[in-house]
Amino acid sequence: MGRLFLVTLEGKSYSCKHCKTHLALCDDVVSKSFHCRHGKAYLFSKVANVTVGVKEDRLMMTGLHTVADIFCVKCGSIVGWTYETAHEEDQKYKEGKSVLERYKVSGPDGSNYWVRHETQIISGGEEDQV
User: Fold this and answer.
1) What is the pTM of this model?
2) Residues near 83 by Cβ (< 8 Å), separated by ≥ 6?
3) Which of 6, 31, 37, 72 has its Cα between 20 and 30 A from that of 83?
4) What is the pLDDT, as a whole number, of residue 130?
5) pLDDT of residue 92
């Protein structure tokens, strides 16, 4: 194994809830209206300190997308996914952007978003759910 280099983000940031590694800046949030299996998710223009998994096609609420899961570089926890290709013309804006699942990260104030398992999550928006 090589030496692990982490980027320290300057400003308010979201971090991995397990190891507190910085993942993205608040200023890089594109949308807070995304959804995933576990609740809220945020779309970011850029993220840091992640590794990218294998690309795969996924049928999401907004159509077919080629995506790859992203993992915290320090602890290896899956924290979201990145959009490689959007197959629908009106979804092209997502390409090159990443989604962080809110329950897998700590907010800029250090808060965590917890999902109660007995609560059924219903997605009513137009954004993606994996």
Assistant:
1) 0.83
2) 65, 66, 67, 94, 95, 96, 97, 98, 99
3) 6
4) 46
5) 96
Superfamily of domain 13-106: Peptide methionine sulfoxide reductase. (2.170.150.20)
Break the chain into its structural domains and give their ranges. 13-106
3-state secondary structure of 38: coil
Read off the tokens for 88: 């629908």
Residue burial 22-48, b: 16+ Cβ < 10 Å; e: rest? bbbbeebebeeebbbebbbbbbbeebb
Q: Residue 57: pLDDT above 90?
A: yes
Residue 114 has a pLDDT of 54
DSSP codes joined into one string, 71-125: EETTT--EEEEEEEEESSGGGGGGTT-EEEEGGGEE-TTS-B----TTSPP---S
Residue 20: phi and psi, rounded to 5, are 65, 20
